Amino acid sequence: METGRYGWGERQLSRLLAVCGFALFGWMLAYAYQNTANFFESAGTIVLLGIVALAVSVLLAFVLGRYAGRAVSLTVIVLLAAGLRLLWVLNADTPPVSDFLDMHEAALSAAAGDFSFGTNEYFTRWTYQIGFALYEALVIKLFGPSLLVLQSFQILFQLGTLLVIYGMAVRAFGETSAKGAALLYALYVPNILMCSVLTNQHISVFFYVLGLFVVMRRRFSGKTDWLLAGLCFGLANLMRPLGSFFLVGFIVYAVLFLLVPGIRERRWPALAAKCVGLLAVYWLVQQAAGAALVQTGVTPYPLESREPYWKFVVGLNPATNGGWSYDDTVLVQQVPIGEERNRLELELVKERLADKRQVAALLVSKAKTMWGGDDSAPMWSMPDQDRPELRGKLIRSERIEYVLLAFLGLVAATLIAVRGASAEASLLVLLLLGYAALHLVIEVQTRYRYDIFPCVFILAGFGLSVLAGGFRRKPPDVSTSEPVS
Question: 435, 29 in Cβ contact below 8 A?
Fold first, then answer.
């Protein structure tokens, strides 16, 4: 990267974030390798397969970067991604289970005109799940109740996410890195397996990354960027309630990389107005959707968590290593939902924070599981299936891919720490670090990595392009961005 390309403050901030990113990717690599050893006979096998995976990835990235243009590369990667996902969906028997079953049954009822599910125990406790249930109901109403139809839409949303990841990577690191990021996303085993699982993550991730792309593409200088990004974040939150996290990440990014530099150029009032506009649009989407569902009698409650402390209760439970707890569920359900349950859950949180040594040990253990553990996609996509050989192959494939991603992320973080990077690249590192910090204190599942892994794929794609010799010494020019008005 040309050191003159970025402002001094931007470059130094990117390097500081990259040092923290280096620590996270190093942690991921160390504990992923440790976990991977449980599924292979020897360490030598892991190293050999890792080297083979790296060599194949570098070769593919080199060929795409050197001999294929954007249109050809995207066509090949999209067809590859679609083919793998469709093949899995057609051959996997994945009935909805757990929360996915509750939402699917509600969708079937809604498609038939029965909205009474909105007052049952599940949806009065987790009202924010109604948005995804109604999305499924719309698909069922239009195309019929076949699971294959819903799964096909999930494939389409993943393909959309792939294209957005490509666009974000171009903006952050250039064309060659974008091809690498898209390729890694297309081949990642958990993404393929989860296409058959009726989870709200597919559609929410698409809209969250689309909102990030709008923010990144012209450094939030477009006249309608605030509106489009606010709508994207708002729609995504109706599917999966991570909007607060992405909004906080956006605000930190805007302050550090947009508003503070804008003070010198006297652009900060316009930028601040656009930031407020984005937050207002997001809030209006939530309020309008909630009011509509209350007015139509679908639910008597707004679309938000009615148990704000629950994720912290289970996240700080040492008995389950910060995972879901049956005992906690039974305990809190002994009191009615509302203020009384909130008080009980807050007391549980305070009790679990009292032993500082135990808390510290728990946080370390959770971080090992969250960022080093094997992905739970085989469990969700193959529930109650007696196919141990296939399950074992899928787990081992995911483990090698994960180690590869962590290594490539480490390469990317190293180069950014040395040379600095753009604000767009720093946004990705900032979000990844924030997500890791958040899951130190709330519930962990390896499935939750899915929501932030677009950032990992983009950073790993940059690392891959470096190793493939396709690193562009001159980063993409952003000087042509529209002026703030």
Answer: no
Q: Name every residue whose Cβ is closer than 8 Å to that of residue 313 and which is 6 or more positions away in sequence.
A: 325, 328, 332, 345, 348, 349, 352
Going by pLDDT thresholds of 50, 70 and 90, the confidence category of residue 471 is: very low
Residue-range definition of the domain harbouring residue 223: 8-467
> Is residue 448 domain-resident?
yes
pLDDT at position 66 over 70: yes
Q: What is the pLDDT of residue 235?
A: 97
Please choose, from the candidates 140, 252, 281, the residue with its C-alpha nearest in 3D space to the C-alpha of residue 198: 140
In a domain, 2, yes or no: no
Q: Is residue 89 part of a domain?
A: yes
Largest CA distance in the chain: 64
The answer to whether 298 and 118 are in contact (CB under 8 A) is yes
> Quick check: is 437 in a domain?
yes
What is the mean pLDDT of the segment spanning 143-160? 96
Enter the pTM of the model. Answer: 0.92
Domain count, the chain: 1
Q: What pairs with residue 126 in β-bridges? A: 305
